[in-house]
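anyone seen this seq b4? input:
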Amino acid sequence: MIAKRVITNRFTDFHLLNVAKTTSQPDARGPYMVIQTGSSPDDPEMRECSFALTRRGTWLHGYIFFMLPKSVRREIAVHETVADVMRIAEELMGKPVVESLDSLRDLLHGTGFSPSAEDSESEVLLEELKRRHPHEIQP
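predicted toks r here
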């Protein structure tokens, strides 16, 4: 699907998701995720994708985000408070940075995450991501 827009670093384009509302604690506040749908700024074909804002202020493809174990997802792209989200948003400038396969290794380094050889679901999702976004996800 062709995206109607390219993702930006403007907080007015972000969607703040209260993760607690998707669990069994609908009245809780936080933790939060920041989601944005559109195409990567580097995608000439403007394929639509969802992106999650990481704690380091970069954008992570939704495909990759959901391939990761829940504990790793929480560590890299789930924010405890709205103040945490605003602090990161205030520091964002210029063209959005979308994690590449190389930068993803660096992002995950501190989490201790390493996919297992038996993780066929993650492998299938990664191959699909590479197929759909070949110029962004390089081996």
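Residues 67 and 122 are 5 Å apart (CA to CA). Residues 11-132 form one domain. kinda curious what u guys think
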